[in-house]
Amino acid sequence: MRPHSEQRQGTGATNGKDKTSGENDGQKKVQEEFDIDMDAPETERAAVAIQSQFRKFQKKKAGSQS
């Protein structure tokens, strides 16, 4: 993965009333290229770990709602 050179503005904490910083985020779509070897074993292990954590999160979320 290539390092991300541009920093996003307006990522600081806001009081919820200031909409100028994130107002145009939905309108401006930037395509980013990623150089990830999808066949690499470490990529597969990372994907499995991410999916596992997401499933745990979903289970916990479903359990707390009932």
Automatic annotation (TrEMBL):
Positions of region (Disordered): 1-44
Assigned GO CC terms: cytoplasm
InterPro entries reported in the protein's UniProt record: Calmodulin_Regulator_PCP4-like (IPR052142)
Bias kind Basic and acidic residues: ranges: 16-32
One Gene Ontology molecular-function label: calmodulin binding
Family stated for the protein in its record: Belongs to the PCP4 family.
PANTHER family named among the record's database cross-references: CALMODULIN REGULATOR PROTEIN PCP4, IG-LIKE DOMAIN-CONTAINING PROTEIN
UniProt name for this protein: Purkinje cell protein 4
Lineage: Eukaryota, Metazoa, Chordata, Craniata, Vertebrata
